[in-house]
User: Fold these one by one.
Assistant:
Number 1:
Amino acid sequence: MTARLLEGKVFAAQLKEQAKADALQLKAKTGVTPGLAVIIVGDNPASQVYVANKHKACEELGIYSEVIRMSEHTSKSQLLAQIEQLNLRKDIHGILLQLPLPDALKADEAEFLYAISPDKDVDGFHPVNVGRLSIGQEYLVPCTPYGCIRMLELAGIPLEGSRAVIVGRSNIVGKPMAQLLLARNATVTICHSRTKNLSEVTKEADILIVAIGKAKFLTADMVKPGAVVIDVGINRLPDRKLVGDVDFETVKEVAGAITPVPGGVGLLTIAVLLQNAVTAARALQKR
Ligand code: NDP
């Protein structure tokens, strides 16, 4: 292996320490304990695990956490009423709606997400926070791309003037990732499923971020020697093994640095979520 391995646990620990210190400082100065509410509708087994992990992480960091479990038969108006109730609560500073929703509610997903007050939107999905990010105000930023950028910064990888290529243009990863890199003076290209000659573009990248949801899609011949490769993808193979969007075994021989899957950027997502809860608490307390 030639590439430097960027292990998520190392950077996640640093981010959690920072969030813990910030939560303690807020409590000492104002008496406010940051509060995060997670709404889970139905009994999707993977969601139950994610929610339990978030709850445990909150406890470790001194953040109050409340899990609101709603039946899979919850109606649209009941869920909207629950969100509104949390919007009004003074002890809750962050609200997270665990996805996916049960089939009957899926069509209204955006309406539920946008019903969360932008001031408590710890996922950073609300159009107000998307707008803030696009004008260079990083307030509540989507957790996965923010985890990637913090990892790059903590790893000491120079961003200013670098050529960054992002493969994937989703609202939750690709687009906010582009904004974050642009704000750090990288020259950014976003690729997607209609991009022509994709490998010609990816081979120009000093920093290559892949978030498409296709197992082992990015191969060594698509990477410039020495590039930093960040793999956001999470894909389960038929044999249940988890892999990313990058063909790790071949790309690690060409790249200068690379994140593994599992054990890469996915580990930073919860840490950023908790930092967002502290950020929201600090801002709400000032009002
Ligand atoms: P989406 O499905 O929303 O978006 C996928 C993007 O990839 C689209 O922009 C699509 O292009 C593009 N794409 C698909 N196929 C190709 C191709 N052959 N060539 C170039 N571009 C392509 O995915 P997400 O952004 O939500 O997630 C991407 C991956 O990241 C998934 O594996 C997901 O599981 C993972 N993920 C991991 C997280 C974590 O670590 N915590 C959090 C969020 C996501 P187009 O727009 O043209 O259709």
Number 2:
Amino acid sequence: MSPLSIKDVIATAPRPFSGEASKLIMEAYVFAEAAHRGQKRKSGEDYISHSLHVAKILSEIGMEENTLVAGLLHDVPEDTEVTLSEIEKKFGSDVALLVDGITKLGKIKLRGSKEEYYLENLRKMFLAMAQDIRVVIIKLADRLHNMRTLEHLPREKQERIARETLEIYAPIANRLGIGEIKGELEDICFKYLDPIHYEETRKIEETYLHEGKAYMDRTVAFFHSFLAKEKIRVTDISGRTKHLYRLYQKLKRHDMDITRIYDLVAIRIIVPGIADCYEALGIIHREYRPMVGRIKDYISLPKPNGYQSLHTTIFGPDGRILEVQIRTKKMHDEAEYGIAAHWLYTEKSRSIWRNIFSRQKHTVVPLKELTWITQLKEWQKEVGRDDKEFVEGLRIEFFKNHIFAFTPKGDIIELPEEVTPIDFAYAIHSEIGHRAVGAKADGKMVPLDYHIQNGQVIEILTVKEKKKPSRDWLSFVKTSTAKSHIRHALRHHENEFGK
Ligand code: MN
């Protein structure tokens, strides 16, 4: 395999760069290559290969040219003789501010207890994010390439970096809606943190896919002709399998029984418009019986990170259970590229993007999709730079209506605020919800309608035998997941046993 070139980096962008932008990116490459010359990565490769890979990831998700330039230069001030002011002179203040932001973000030190450490890191990410979200996106690209090449580091470093990535970077990629980066980060972390289960999951998937792959290809072809016959306009149909880490999380809850995972194979149907999504769903349901409780309309009710799609699980061709996801091309790109996709779809998008993040006073164009970032910046202006107050407020703003709670094993569960241990239990799994009898927050017993605080470790006490949820729970649970599971279980119970 020939080494990555700057031409590849530029060519990989989903929307071609202008001649001017390409020239700027080339110049940054020449500059970075000269600065890093003679330095080697732990893998033995020239250091510049890291900078190129970081820039390539940024190019893939459609970032604008200054972000790529800063990606190429991101390790220059820290690791070479060249200073930030030289970068500013050559590439301007926008690039210099980005590079400075990444350098500062790189100085995170591990300290204190786990939660304290987590919040401290989150705090720094918030600060960077409020200053310029591009800094965080470059940092994610940097981390992703470092994770891809983690094999060259000593064992204990691998573990520390993988843990930090799983706790800080993957959730942030998720919050920014960059599904591809989140999925890959989690899978690499999984491999280093839990190699035994990683292997086990990989083997299960491999065995299953051996027979599943042919089925998937057949099903994709079948849906093509089926939807064409029904005169549904289709842009693309593809099959996908689950990321390994997510798959393992599910397998754990189902006794490692892969036949009980219904969304292992999913068919993605991309259609031109929103109306086509619902039409396709209707046609599919007419032909194939949907599974109760598994039809999800994330178009009317997007996920907190903005994800939109219709999901349904059907008893599909050959009687196999199959998840079907239906969405428009725009929704699809947003799911893959997250926040970066928002301006792929905006007229004059690149300049608007720059305006939002430029430090000039009157150029802010409030894009609907980017309101939360704009709010963040507005708010920052009002409060000024008082560190403590700023961070406190940011936490509230950025995760408005959101908290993070931990399982006793340290898994992070993101939930709306004022949720109860019952919501938490159902967020993990419906059976844990049904069987819940008590809860502890940070080791202390709390009532089931307790309001969970951000950062708490929540332990759900359950009974072994099957049990139906209590009807009272409906009066205090907050999430729709919990509500629908409880209602469904109660209904099911009544049908089976009479009132
Ligand atoms: Mn780096």
Number 3:
Amino acid sequence: MIETDFIPDTLNLDKDHGIVQYTSPSNIALIKYWGKLENQIPANPSISFTLNACSTTTKIEYVKLGKKASDFSFDLYFEGLPKEEFKPKITTFFKRIITYMPFLLEYRLSIHTSNTFPHSSGIASSASGMSALALCLMEMERSFTKNMTDDYFDRKASFLSRLGSGSACRSINGPLVQWGKSNFIESSSDLYGIPFPYDVHPIFNNFHDTILLVDKGEKQVSSTVGHDLMHGHPFAANRFKQADDNLGKIIGVLESGNIKEFINIVESEALTLHAMMMTSNPYFILMKPNTLSIINAIWEFRETSKTHVCFTLDAGANVHVLYPENEKDKVFSFIKEKLVPFCQNGQYICDQIGQGAKKK
Ligand code: DP6
């Protein structure tokens, strides 16, 4: 599909008010998206586990305006309270998607949103937040359209989410979502995420992700700035090729259940992401001393316990600890005893691979 396929032909805007509501999860990338071109086109393909517990619920109440407005008209409530500081980001999003959602200028929206995870946890809310919003807008569009297929609904929801925040396009479906054109996956696209189209070994069923909150402070460098620093980065071309090669490898690993190779790819991707940050100009470090202490403790425990626990990182200091269902008791005891002491105020979140967004 191409961009113009997402411009609706005929909409019936007779409906003068309504309510839509969606819950959408966060996701954690196994192969990382880092670097983008114009219009939120990724510089390399990525793949992620959809999460379950970390999610955003968004409700939109919409009322038809007397006539088409020249600007967007909306209120925003975060956890029940008006939140003016989130409005510019949403206005930017609406501007990016207006061609695909022309009805946005015909309605006044009241947007109510909340997260399951604490706002100041250092957990990025853009993936769950932008996808929940995009899904609500798609539900509005569905009510103005005849016979929209579920496939089109999901694809356009992912397409719109991407325009809000790249990684958000991987939150619509589950349990594994791939985004970004690659010769390894014929149906892959730079425009939207797709459910991973190949077989997945049962070892990855109910895979666990315990998120260790190492540092809850505001990041010194935002993802947007970080992505931008990949332009002119001395290692960019090799990195983008490596991500695609790793996608090729992980397809086979997910199918065969070769967990040792899985660990190797996932940990290497996490460290490469941070290596790109450390070798940007200006350079920066988002890991904290406790991030490294956790990584070293995981390596030591994996060696002695012969379990298959591994880590990944997003663009911050927090550590995602990944492990299979059949090792959960042993690994979770280790996490509580040895890793939680490195968390800020002992805080962590128990999450697991999930099935994607849900209508409420
Ligand atoms: C490190 O999706 O937050 O988490 O498109 O600018 O909103 P924008 O960036 P964002 O970048 C996330 C990068 C990452 C890796 C990943 O999720 O693939």
Number 4:
Amino acid sequence: MGLFISMEGPDGSGKTLQMDMLQKALIEAGYPVLRTREPGGPAISERIRALLLDPACKEMSPETEALLYAAARAQHVSQVIKPAMAEGKVVLCDRFVDSSLVYQGIGRGLGVSTIGEINHFATGGLQPDVTIVLQIDYAEGLRRKNVQYSGQLDRMEQQAGSFHQLVHDGFSQIVEWDPERVRMVDGSKAPEEVHTMIMEVLKPWLDRVLPQ
Ligand code: TMP
């Protein structure tokens, strides 16, 4: 039934680079990989992403934000993730429900249980088999983003430092709540070192899927 891997972490934690390296390593090892991201994936979810990250959407309420992330996810799960799992693929997903629990539940203060319920409805209860949290100091993460995009931050990245601090601490909490599934990796190390740690963490799950 495939394998569902999600990658999480504060903004600027190096997820995209690590997703690139992981995808390459798995393809080279012969795994059938489907790489995707949230918010996004299929066209409908990518359109919702554009709305969510548009700095012009300053008036968006926390409730609207939470529901739009869940709506994008519902489409993503039904149109892309579930079919790929049914084909036996290794699904690599850049963010999933844990991001909503942390950013909307904790960061926005909407509550982890409320966000959990909305997302249970959106996903039908689908959860990753294993989740990597790349942890990094929030100020360092935003510094990296500023350098990468020359200060052109999206609507979420533009939130106050106090919001990003809550997000950072929220990811550590998620690891404590579900230590079997959610594994923390130090995102402040050199990219090759982080990649090696990720491959070590994933080994027991990858060993259950046969490369083709
Ligand atoms: P990205 O920059 O990793 O592509 O993610 C887009 C932004 O959306 C990032 O700031 C995290 C935020 N986000 C949420 O607030 N809730 C969610 O459920 C997801 C998936 C992302």
